[in-house]
Amino acid sequence: MPYDRDALAAYLECSTDPSAIFAMCDCFRAGYGIDRDHDAIDQAENRKITCPTLVLWGDKGVIARHFDLKNIWDGWCVDARYAAMPSGHFIPEEAPDAMFNVLRPFLIEDLGI
Prior knowledge:
Helix content: 55-70%
Shape: globular
Number of helices: 7
Order of helices and strands: HHHEHHEHH
Radius of gyration: 17 Å
Number of strands: 2
Largest sheet: 2 strands, parallel
Distance between the termini: 36 Å
């Protein structure tokens, strides 16, 4: 199991709260509804994400098999960077060290640390 027992217990406790369930479903509803409307407006006005953007995905998951991530994110971002993680969908739980090794330099590079 990719989850630490304590983390899994916390996830289960939080995800059984009716307000949390409502919020999770609202997130999916927005992704199918209003978010798509906003995306269409941004595309029509040729607006892009201008800050450096790190795109991570699990190489054992379904995302890279079904989507051309570079093409999608290059269409949205001025400065997209990419890293496949040795995991499925839940990267922080399944590959925390690999994620940290990519995320840390990405986050500190502009700080000059």
